[in-house]
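User: Hey, my collaborator sent me this sequence without any context and asked if I could get a structure. I don't really work with proteins. Can you help?
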Amino acid sequence: MFNDKSRFSLSTGSRRITIWRERGTCFEPRNISERRHFPSRGVMVWAGIMMDGRTDLHFFDTWSVTGQRHRDEILEPYVHLFQGAVSPDFLFMDDNAPCHRALLVDDFLETENIQCMSWPANSPDLNPIEHVWNMLGRQIAALLHTPSSVTELKRTLQEAWNRLSPQLIHHLIASMVNRCAACLAVRGNHTPY
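Assistant: No problem. I've predicted the 3D structure and written it out in structure-token form, which is a compact way to encode the shape of the chain:
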């Protein structure tokens, strides 16, 4: 299971705006996008994807996740459930976020015999769910009427999540071989993913 959290903001773009520009033109008005310096209201959401399925979205009530919250809100109700259904081939991917490396999280994973992938220290580009988050953010940013409340944002995210095809998820996970090869080729630096 590939999993991670993402933030989605009520301000336009949710940091998912890409500007292609020619060298030396960064300060031209057409290449400047004004935005608020302080984050607007929004949501923190978690999900997991696998070759044969996906979890439900889990919305956190704050943008801060501790090791205890990760264990209580994610590992116990979602990961443990999927591990029981997929066992014994279940393999869990957790990046190296501080809440994932808490002692109580490691103890839970060990006690429940949840096998974890080794993960590089700083390689979010390897995690296929990051591309799912990016796609959802772009879909929301492209809406004619973007969400204006947290409740509406949650509903819109849930609808976009439900529309994701199993083929897309399968394709993203199947690309892991190429992702890993690209990461090795650039010795851990940025990849085209």
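In plain terms: Residues 67-86 form the longest helix (20 residues). You can pass these tokens on to your collaborator as they are.
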